[in-house]
Amino acid sequence: MPAHLLQLSPAVFRLVAAAAGLLWLAACSAPPPCAAPGNGGPRNANGQCVYENMANADAKPNAGTVKIWSRFFFGSKEGTVPVDPIPVQPLTRAQLDALPGDANHIVRLGHSSHLLKLQGRYWLIDPVFGERASPVSFAGPKRFHPPPIALQDLPPIDGLLLSHDHYDHLDVPTISYLHDKVKHYFVPLGVGARLQDMGVAAERITEFDWWQSGEQGGVKITAAPAQHFSGRTLWDRDSTLWASWVLEAGGQKIFYSGDSGYFPGFKQIGERFGSFELALIENGAYNAYWPAVHMTPEESVQAVKDVHAKVLYSVHNSTFDLAFHTWQDPLERIAQLTAAQQVTLATPEIGEVMTIGQVRTNKLWWQGLH
Q1: pTM metric for this prediction
Q2: How do 353-355 and 104-110 pair as beta strands?
Q3: What is the CATH number of the domain that holds 294?
């Protein structure tokens, strides 16, 4: 647990740990209504509408609920939060507007949050500008670094993609601020009700099942499978769908894995789309207790090979303390693996602008930091 929680009394600590360590706890809205059956479900289990992962005979079993919760409540952590400042490149609206409008650019905001400029139009992926990935403002995983640009300084957003409804991907303060400032939201089935609870008008939201496609301002988007789960309370697990995403703009294709364990769906995505200029691949928050829902760095490299991506862009790390590995471990391991297997790696600093398809020198910025 983060050090500031250790200052609480044991009883209060256990209560705060329950809210802070488990990102799917809290929120008071009722589960979203069940959508029509499709590729990702839903199925009827005990009279409730829930979604399910695609069949995967090789999926590794997760540990039991009590065992996982006990690890979060009572397990020790070491090196999971950086001592040194995470480097951040401040970003201005003028810098963004100066980027060529005939190319595709991506900026890492932190964790899995990204700002994209696709053929002159701005998009957001899983934006989290809040101070904590938590249902409460006073406890829970706290940011290691500030965002490189403030919410109020963002340019007009043409489209916003969400992969699923967990707190480190769907952030109430962020969506509440952006609710009428984004032209359109694209989300997996059931997540639209979450956005409406945060003030987004229904006509601004389109929900997708796996393999469904849409278009916004010349950008084609397709929701694809992922192997994960959903929920923001103890009683709404899997009541909304989770997804990966494919974006196509200006003749280039970008893949975003969302949160996912390793599964056959990556090969299916590669077969359907042929190849990708860039794959934003989850690389962080893994643990032997939950191997089915988060990939190890070794699996992340294999996933990039499966989708036939030219560049592995590492995400889901460097911003929040969500597991038990050191904060540098995902980055260091992915760097070693990609070097050994001759896979092109992108680990941009927070705030760094990367132009897709443009030659760049990758910096291992975490080395030497504690």
Answers
A1: 0.90
A2: antiparallel
A3: 3.60.15.10
Q: Are 315 and 303 in contact (CB under 8 A)?
A: no
Task: Report whether 16 contacts 22 (CB < 8 A).
Answer: no
- What DSSP string runs through 197-245? HTT--GGGEEEE-TT-EEEETTEEEEEE--S----SSTT-TTSS---EE
315 belongs to a structural domain: yes
As to burial, measured by CB atoms within 10 angstroms (0-12 exposed, 13-18 middle, 19+ buried), residue 300 is buried
List CB contacts of 259: < 8 A, sequence separation 6 or more: 112, 163, 164, 166, 169, 226, 228, 242, 282, 293, 294, 316
Residue 46 lies in a domain: no
Amino acid at 84: D
139 found inside a domain: yes
CA–CA distances in Å: residue 84 to residues 26, 87, 145, 318: 32, 9, 10, 12
Residues 293, 75: Cα–Cα separation, whole Å: 20
The span from the CA of 207 to the CA of 223, in Å, is 9
Nearest to 35 by CA among 179, 223, 254, 221: 223
The range of the structural domain enclosing residue 189 comes to 6-26+63-355
Alpha carbons 126 and 211: distance in angstroms, whole number:
19
Distance CA 15, CA 73 (A): 9
Number of neighbouring beta carbons within 10 Å of residue 236: 20
Residue 369 lies in a domain: no
Q: Strand, coil or helix: what is 312?
A: strand
Model pLDDT for residues 62-117, shown as the tens digit of each residue: 999 899 989 888 888 999 999 999 999 999 999 999 999 999 999 999 999 999 99
**What six digits make up the tokens of 8?**
């609480």
Domains of the chain: total: 1
